[in-house]
Amino acid sequence: MYEIYCKLRDEKGVKDADVxxxxxxxxxxxxxxxxxxxxxxxxxxxxxxNYFGVSLEYLRxxxxxxxxxxxxxxxxxxxxxxxxxxxxxxxxxxxxxxxLTNDKKSVDDINVKGKKVLVRCDFNVxxxxxxxxxxxxxxxxxxxxxxxxxxxxxxxxxxxLGKPKGEPKPELSLAPVAKRLSELLGQEVKxxxxxxxxxxxxxxxxxxxxxxxxxxxxxxxxxxEETKNGDEFSKELASLCDVFVNDAFGxxxxxxxxxxxxxxxxxxxxxxxxxxxxxxxxxxxxxxxERPFVAILGGAKVSSKISVxxxxxxxxxxxxxxxxxxxxxxxxxxxxIGTSLCEDDYLQYALDMMKKAEDKGVKLLLPLDNRIGDNxxxxxxxxxxxxxxxxxxxxxxxxxxxxxxxxxxAVKDAKxxxxxxxxxxxxxxxxxxxTEAVAKALAETDAxxxxxxxxxxxxxxxxGYGDKMTHISTGGGASLEFLEGKELPGxxxxxxx
Length: 497
Ligand code: AMP
What we know:
With 497 residues, this protein is α/β, with parallel strands linked by helices. The chain has helices at residues 2-11, 16-23, 27-32, 43-61, 73-83, 87-100, 136-150, 175-185, 200-207, 231-239, 273-287, 306-313, 326-332, 347-360, 401-412, 433-444, 455-462, 476-483, 489-492, and strands at 116-120, 127-128, 131-132, 154-158, 189-192, 214-217, 243-246, 268-271, 293-297, 318-321, 336-337, 363-365, 369-373, 382-386, 389-390, 395-399, 416-420, 448-451, 471-472. The strands form five sheets. A six-stranded parallel β-sheet has the order 5-6-4-1-7-8. Strands 12-10-9-17-18-19 form a six-stranded parallel β-sheet, with helices on both faces. It has a three-stranded antiparallel β-sheet with strand order 14-13-16. A hairpin with an 8-residue loop joins strand 13 and strand 14 (382-386). Helix 5 runs antiparallel to helix 6 (87-100) and helix 7 crosses helix 8 (175-185). The longest helix is centred in the first third of the chain and has 19 residues, at 43-61. The two termini are 20 Å apart. The relative contact order is 0.10. The structure holds adenosine monophosphate (AMP). Adenosine monophosphate binds next to strand 16.
């Protein structure tokens, strides 16, 4: 609840005065509230007073009271609505609350019989000589597509593929996707070849559709407006359909025509099953985790995960930091790191985060030892040394065996584990031990295990532990932004329940 308030205050500019207006509690009553002891006469309002009392207390003293309200957001919202005459404020609250409670309308909440349904999918698959080399994203899109076909919708699929930079590039055409999707679905997916994406060919193909038919539009990034969220292309996409479904989590952190702009011109905009699953797993893990909650961060740079570290320290019981980013922490503590990756601009930040962890009582685990190499290649000379004892000319490329045990033990009794970023240069087999040990530990724990997209997902799959995880996100950047606590425009644009 406290985080919700901070977001409202920081990102939406909600003022305490708004709360006073919305709830009808006078400002003086509000400010007399201290440490949760104040009881408003109207008991139902106490929930609201408590809720914002936390924030007022925080603003006054800079200290967050040591309790967390786990009241059900819906009750809270009902009270705000009941008490407030300020509809604009209520709507703002409603929009924001529903975002945090994953309360978006989904394909289960609409009737698409006989309707034209535009579905934004993530068909951004790797291609080699026109062949799809990893079809996970196609398979992941099938449940929503099948549901819409079964319900009698006219299903118009769209997606981007690669970076054609606003012009038609035959090697980035979605034609091979239409072919493979037809095989996977067991019914024809007609490809609406059209360099304008929504040009005469696409419009004619849509006009001929019967209930239960499926077509796929050309790569949305053939149009330069797509990534600029331009109005023209958004309107053109919207003109094809009666209903819009967003099932592309991988692009949810971007506001583009085909996932955000189009919703301005379509009344019904909902999320698909894949998107819903991502929001449920990541949202629940971060905002409502079963504890102990352990987060594991790795990867190359501290700077790309600054906000993630900061945000997660407010939520986790244990934060594990491995991978290339751990050497910045090691150096900040006065260690020798040889030629290991390091961001000198973030040494102070690393110390600040260690202090924050200590202040909050969060266990922060850093590597105890490292596998190091004398050059950046798989067959360099290798040795294991203690953290902070890396000789000149050597580079930390993986965590060492003691650290594997430390990290593995830390997830044993966890109830929720979120992992983003490899523990070392896992692409080189000699430096994949640490990442594999963590993957194995996650595979063996009873906790809910959630793997961020991108490199961590690739590592888990390559190492053969994919099917042992509770959820592997399909979005790299999007899952990272979720962990940062940011609002994802692609999710926000869908209708609230
Ligand atoms: P990121 O995109 O930040 O999650 O970083 C993933 C990349 O970090 C992978 O390609 C890893 O090879 C790389 N990485 C992890 N640990 C190290 C390390 N100790 N030194 C250099 N690169 C690393």
